[in-house]
Give the backbone structure.
Amino acid sequence: MDITKTYKIMENAHLEGADLREEDLRGADLRGANLQRANLEGANLQRANLSKTNLAGAYFKDARLEKANLEGANLQGANLSEADLSGVNLSHANLQGANLTGAYLGWTDLEGANLQGADLSVAYCWNPNFAEADLEGANLSGTDLTGANFSHANLQGANLSYTDLADADLEGANLQGAKFYKAFLWHMNLEGADLQGADLTDVDLKHSNLQGVNLKDACLENADLRFANLEGVNLEGVKGLTSNKDEKKEES
C-alpha cells in the first residue's frame, strides 16, 4: 500500500497511536484528525494541513513541518524536539508542556498560543511571532530569539536566561518574576512591560526602550543600561541599581 497516497486526505481520521515514522506526508489534509500519541519521528509534513488536529502527546522528533498549518491544534505534551517548524502556523495552538528543545522556529506564527510550561531551551527562533501568547513558566534559556514579537504576551515566571533578544518586541508583555540572567537585550522594545520582581542580573539593555516599564522589586545587579530610554520607569525597590555603569568607559 502506498501510504503517501493513503494519507493525503485523512480529514477527521482516527489515527491515535499510529506509527508514521519517516512517512512522506507532504501536503496531507489531516484537519481535525485524531493523532494523539502518534509517532511521527522524522516524518515529512511540509505544507500539511493539521489545523484543529489532536496531537496531544505525539512524537515529532526530527520531523519536517515547514509551512504546515497547525492553527488551533492540540499539541499538549507533544515532543517536537529538533523538529523544523519554520514558517509554521501555530496560532492559538495548545502547546502546554510541549518539548521544543532545539527546534527550528524561524518565522513561526505562535500568536495567541498556549505555551505554559513548554520547554523551548536552545531552540532557534528567528523572528517568531509570540504576540499575546501564554508562556507562563516556559523555559526559553539559551534560545536565539532575535527579532521575536512578544507584544502583550504572558511570560510570567519564564526562564529567559542566556537568551538573545536583540531587536525583540516585548511591548506591554507580562514579565513578572521572569529570569533574564545574562540575556542579551540590546535595542529591545519593552515599552509598558511589567517586569516586577524580574531578575535582570548581568543583562545588556543598551539602547533599549524601557519607557513606562514597571521594574518594582526587580534585580538589576550589573545590568548595562547605557543609552536606554528610562522615561517614566518605576524603580521602586529595585535591587543592584548603582552608578557602576556610569563609571565604565563609554563605547567608542
